[in-house]
Amino acid sequence: MDSTQPSHGTQPAERAQHLEAAPTEVAERVRQALRARFGEDIPVPDDLPGLDELARIASHATHRRWSDRPVDPAWVRVLTACALSAPSKSDLQQADIVEVRDPARRQALAALVPQLPWFDSAPLVLVFCGNGRRFRRLFARAGQPFTNEHLDAFFNPAVDAALVLMNFMRAATAAGLVHCPISVLRDRPIEVARILELPQHVFPVAGLCVGHPVDARSPVPRLPLAATVHVDRFDDADVDARVDAYDARRMAAEARFGRGDAKPWSQAKRVQYAERQRGDWGDFVRGQGFRTD
């Protein structure tokens, strides 16, 4: 979520102009974005419904710079409402959003992620949380025992929060905003919970920095669809060859962006996870009242 991405591509104003273009032109933008992303030509019918939205999704890129312009609170209200319109497991609605406005709390969160010096400069900082508390309260009010105290009762709000996070990002992009999800907050969950006063059965899933753009970003290449899309049965027999080919394609892209010091994806991820990370996450989750069996 927090990986560095090269800067390149269509400016936001130009992007808006393109999205007003004829369907054939927008379909070609989708094709180009998917070609850059996956290294293959993916047919995009000119008459495919929703091409404008597909172009935004296909061209997604994470930003870590924003203008000084604040995000209008009225916008935030609309975007959070749109975000919380995401699907919810069994209509349990177990996702919450904490907008961090107080400067002291923002600074406290920023102090937890010194490796992200741009965190506190974001005009808008949100933390997306899984909330298993409200649902349990329904049982407590009725004097009824909660009979599903096991791992799924944690997994469901975690997925709900992730869906709401993605929905907010889609809504923010449609509004011309840029953003960067911050999963590294989970490195310090106890401190995050203290700063945001998260009670039992509420936990942080990710933060999100949001603002108005100052530059453009290009789509970062992804693993080929052959490695991640399966038909009828899971099949990773060719995974090593797929990863090697992806490493080569990604390194070529990094070279085009002038990042000659970049490492192959497979090597960079091994280095990143060579040291134990979030070994206390399970303890934190159980400390928040969840069972993990």
User: What is the CATH third-level topology name of the domain at 73-215 and 275-287?
Assistant: NADH Oxidase
CATH superfamily of the domain at 73-215 and 275-287: NADH Oxidase
Helical residue percent band: 40-55%
CATH class of the domain at 73-215 and 275-287: Alpha Beta
Q: In what range is the share of β-strand residues?
A: 5-15%
Q: Structural class of the secondary elements?
A: alpha+beta
Low-pLDDT stretches: 1-19
Reported CATH architecture of the domain at 73-215 and 275-287: 3-Layer(aba) Sandwich
Strand ordering within the main sheet: 1-2-4-3
Question: Strands, helices and their partners?
Answer:
Elements: H1 12-19, H2 23-38, H3 51-58, H4 73-83, E1 95-99, H5 103-112, E2 124-131, H6 133-141, H7 152-174, E3 178-182, H8 189-196, E4 202-211, H9 225-228, H10 239-256, H11 265-272, H12 281-287
Antiparallel strand pairs: 1-2, 2-4, 3-4
Helix pairs in contact: 2-3, 4-7, 5-8
Question: What's a concise summary of this model?
Answer:
The chain has 293 residues and is an alpha+beta fold.
List keywords for this structure.
293 residues, alpha+beta, NADH Oxidase, 12 helices, globular
Give an overview of the whole structure.
This protein is of the alpha+beta class and 293 residues long. The chain has a domain at 73-215 and 275-287: NADH Oxidase, CATH 3.40.109. The chain contains twelve helices and four strands; from the N terminus they run H-H-H-H-E-H-E-H-H-E-H-E-H-H-H-H. It has helices at 12-19, 23-38, 51-58, 73-83, 103-112, 133-141, 152-174, 189-196, 225-228, 239-256, 265-272, 281-287; strands at 95-99, 124-131, 178-182, 202-211. A four-stranded antiparallel sheet has the order 1-2-4-3. It is globular and about 60 Å long. It starts with 11 loop residues before the first helix and ends in a 6-residue tail after the last helix. 25% of the residues are buried.
